[in-house]
Amino acid sequence: MRTFVIGDIHGGLLALEQVMKKAEVTTEDTLIFLGDYVDGWSQSVEVIDYLIDLKSKQNCICIRGNHDQLALDWLENRHDDFDEEMWYKHGGKATVEGYAKISEQKKKSHIEFLENLQDYYLDDQNRLFVHAGFTNLNGVKWEYFSKLFYWDRTLWETALSLDPKLKEDDLYYPKRFTVYKEVYIGHTPVTRIGQTVPVNKACVWNVDTGAAFRGPLTIMDIETKEYWQSEPLNELYFNEKGRN
Length: 244
Hints:
This protein has helices at 13-22, 44-55, 66-75, 84-99, 104-115, 148-151, 154-161, 233-236, and strands at 3-6, 30-33, 60-62, 120-122, 127-130, 182-185, 199-201, 204-206, 218-221, 227-229.
């Protein structure tokens, strides 16, 4: 049995199917999805259908992403602190178009799926899986604003800026990087720093390889750190814009 972590999918079902096949995933394996299943390419609805079906067959842990929460807010007609125009520009338009084609019954099953996403997952080896990050120096259980689990970028920015020569026992070493053995995130594509593969900084692994844009989708074995990638999403969906 293996445990895999999967980066941000953003409606790219074709890419998800590719990496599942390349990694030779079986029903004995555990899958940890880091969120952002929707908004971007045209198959957001199909991605959620796929995940619902997958959860019925094997152990799947589905983390909440900011785009998943935005889609849920839209589906449940919640407009507080919701900039619908901005959401449309960042992938929401494709999600709205997808939901216009399905039944109310299926829509309700998707709402239930989105409502039951986890803010984070902490395994028995003190490895944290969260969409974006956390800000409390003592860890996720003490986080005051739960929205930061799927909106924070400071964890990754701090990891990127950290002097690799700084030791964990140094007075200036960020305490957030001493709480967990490893932290797996998505949310901020590594394409922003010119990469298209998982990037490790301090104890943080960023597995968002830019599938929402022109990067591939990545699935990684958390024990061996071996990873498999799809074709770039703009090539798989060559007649679409995605979030580009």
